[in-house]
Amino acid sequence: MGILEGKSILVTGVTHKTSIAYQVAKIAQEQGATVVISNFGRAMSLTNRVAKSLDPAPAVIELNVTDEEHLAALPETLRANGIEQIDGIVHSIAYANPETALGGGFLTTPWEDVATALQVSAFSLKSLTMACKPLFGPDVSVVGLTFDGRIAWPTYDWMGVAKAALESTSRYLARYLGAEGVRCNIVAAGPLDTIAKKAIPGSQTFNDLWGDRAPLGWDTNDAVPTAKGVVALLSDWFPMTTGEMVHVAGGVHAMGG
Q: Of 21, 151, 153, 214, whose CB is crowded by the most CB atoms within 10 A?
């Protein structure tokens, strides 16, 4: 019996086999969960394609977390795909304009692009959680993904600010929803060679840093360790853990210069 046996999990942001979200969906299924995956717009074609490589192929729903109509319809959309109760949510959603909000132009980024980064990458954790709330079971785990927003990373700029906001949002969700049996945690991953990372100007810097400083080593092509951390938090094995940020990054966060 797997550690997610009998649970229903919504995994957002599944686009490619290299993504953390894909590996989460795959491992969650192997651990007994019924998984639904989501994306929206032009990315839906990628999600539908990659879903066929999962066994069994999960239901794929369109969900734009900045669209109030999509959010309002989410419970019914899930029910239409056979999900009567949600036991876990994986928030793997982030966006910042790579031309203005990333790559070293921090001091000149216009507010409109900052607002977009914050809404899509941080506020959406609250939006998604509350949209799913009508289907929550008695014990729910919400897990988001970050790249340690406590640090001012080179080139990461306003996405770093958005990730810090995501981490704080998770803590406040833990505060306000804990009494209802909802755990909210964040997994801080090391750099992985995903489509999203490749869009960040100068992202090779992260690979070099981890290559030098990770005491356990770090494979930028292997999302499985991070995905296992997410699945563990989705399970019942962390029943009293909430408001936490778990690092799955080879130990770099604990090392000095």
A: 21
